[in-house]
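re: ur question from earlier - yeah i can do the single chain one, its not a big deal. heres the input i used so u can compare w yours
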Amino acid sequence: MLSTYKSAFLIATTLTLLHAGLSAQIASAPFNVDPVPLSSKTTNGPPQEAAAPGRPQDLHIGIGDLLQVTMFGTQDFNADFRVSSSGDISLPPLGLVHVAGLSTSEAERLIERQLVEGGFYREPRVSVFAKEYVTQGVSILGEVKNPGVYPLLADRHLLDLLSQAGGLTPNASKTVSITHAGQNTPSVVTLSPDPELAATSNPAVLTGDTIVVSTAGLVYVIGNVNKPGGYVMTDNQLTVLQALALAGGNSPMAALDRAQIVRQVKGAREAVPVSVKKILDGRNQDIRLQAQDILFIPGSTGKNAATRSVEAILQAAVGVAIYRR
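and the output i got, formated as tokens:
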């Protein structure tokens, strides 16, 4: 019983602090909203192309890699060898052969040369195959279903790696950053379903790259709508009518002429009235929303319900966000 009282006290204290923090950020000054011209369509330009890194370099053997070494016409070399911490493999009859930092083709030529120089074979034909590349990987982070480090065993492109990571999550945006090893400035790629733009949105990936899929912006629609909640902004663009449609439309008791948009402006929450009714009637232009905007549709029962404070709207939005988790 005592632990129950303690838990209730902690929850009440947390909610009180959250309410106090939100209240301190409330501002009454209205902000400007950007109308969407009714006579024009929003078009997306070509995606920003990543800096051309060229073809992926040959993979190099590293410490811990597992190599399969074979030689045509003999069974002496048909075995697997793990690269030691010193970068060597113990290869009979040669003993230790340093292969770290070499490509598999370079390792083949090195072993063949040492076999000839040692007098073991006259014209050996050696094959080296890397069964495991422990150190040659690509990090895939952000809004993918299975983030992690993935081996890069051959020439691969961005879409190949995203598919290998299970694809994108529902909250993923179309913006992907690729940071090459040894560089601090990432290349930015905008994914596009357009086949004509596929090449620019699917660059080659190099070993050591870090790929981050960013999170798309969210807009919250609350109040007298059929499906209140947070909705992903496709291409980071969403209008009032589009957000209302995603929320399943308004309920029969909605006061569409007294809606409000609550937005974070310079560290404070500001609200501006919006007449969704006039937008639907074509008397006003549709309005572009921004990430983290809250579109509040009040009810028509009572004047107080249509003029709710920003604090009350924020509390409702926080409740919706927690519920959706």
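Residues 2-24 form the longest helix (23 residues). not sure if urs matches, ping me
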